[in-house]
Amino acid sequence: MLTIGELASYAGVTVRAVRHYHAKGLLPEPDRDHSGYRRYDAGAVIELIKIRTLAEAGVPLARVRELLRAGEEEFAAAVADIDRRLQAEIRDRQRHRERIARLASGDSLVLPPQVVEYLDRLRALGVDERIVQAERDGWIPLAAHSPERVPEWMTRKREQLDDPRLADFYLTLSQALDRADDPRLIELADKLAAYFTRLADERGVGYVDDTDIELPLVELMDKLAFDTVPSARRLIELLKQRGWTGWTKLERVAPTPPGATP
């Protein structure tokens, strides 16, 4: 026979909790012995462990009382329901943990993993952080607008970045960021126009760009890029003279002579 302190110790609760469960009618109070102490048997330990386990699982005490009085099948079914609820809560908490982790990692909070990997690759190549930031700012609304197409676009981006020439274009632009009249922009425009033309001739214009997004979103993404990388606006002007236009949505156009009105 056990004292209330021993019962609480075996069941992993406090004496106060045992008395609380007595008061709620969950655990029957045994008669007192000749010394005036309540004595508990092994069955009380089992019942108390059940109460503690159900309560810790978030089951309201009123429902705990019902379950303790239920038959074997009803009790098993109720426990299965509790287990399913706990599994759902675990999945929710895991998602919260993942969001917290993404919050700590910056880009990952608002961008798909494929885009974050792409941005990290630009950084590894030595691309200026302002260009990376412009890419990031553009991908945020684009990924939110068409998340189902991100894997397709990223596959193409990775293929293009595997070409050393495109990587070199990024590095050249990085070096010419601070001056809109930097002569390297003219050389870059020549190389980019030739590169885009070759890609379009070999793989079709759709391969060069098929973002297929609404004009207001294109304009927003262009503005984000031009605000972050002012020399990009000059680069687009030079590209238009060579038969290509657009930052977010690249399009083939008739070449515009320098100084001509668009």
From TrEMBL:
Keywords: DNA-binding
Coiled-coil annotated spans: none
CDD domains membership: HTH_MerR-like
InterPro entries with a match to the protein in the record: DNA-bd_dom_put_sf, MerR-type_HTH_dom, MerR_fam
Pfam families from the UniProt entry: MerR
Gene3D superfamilies to which the protein is assigned, alphabetical: 1.10.1660.10
Domain (HTH merR-type) ranges: 1-70
This protein's name: MerR family transcriptional regulator
Organism whose genome encodes this protein: Nonomuraea monospora
